[in-house]
Fold this sequence. Notes:
This protein is mainly alpha-helical. Helices cover 73% and strands 0% of the residues.
Amino acid sequence: MRDLRDQTVIIIEHLLGxxxxxxxxxxxxxxxxxxISEDEKTLKVARCLRALGDQYNxxxxxxxxxxxPRLPEVVNNQASEGFSRMVTELSNNHVLCTHAEQLGPxxxxxxxxxxxxxxxxxxxxELLPRVKDVMVHYINTNLLPWIRRSGGWENxx
Length: 157
């Protein structure tokens, strides 16, 4: 069994590494019984995170456009801080707050992290390696205790 920090790295790799066409080839039911291997479980979590983020894409498109000029912040030496500020701002966006009430604070932060990471990787694909790093750092710093308390990645989705 992999450590949760290591699982986070692999999940983010899957989440940002698959193009939209590849997602269609995967099982889409996040509530299906657990897959056999640990790799399949990890891929399932990534797929479910992507589905969670995609549910809200239409809702936040306007908010995301405001971040486009700030995307280069993810490149500099304070990339983690810049990414963290963007997640906080998006999580506090009045349009998103109505949806956040249904999810709970940690799940809302996770969802916002996924949305922002996917958005940045689509808008500026050259930032993909950096986006992966800052997403992993943000999740492991801010959400890992909640993921642990919840029984691991496969139990939060």
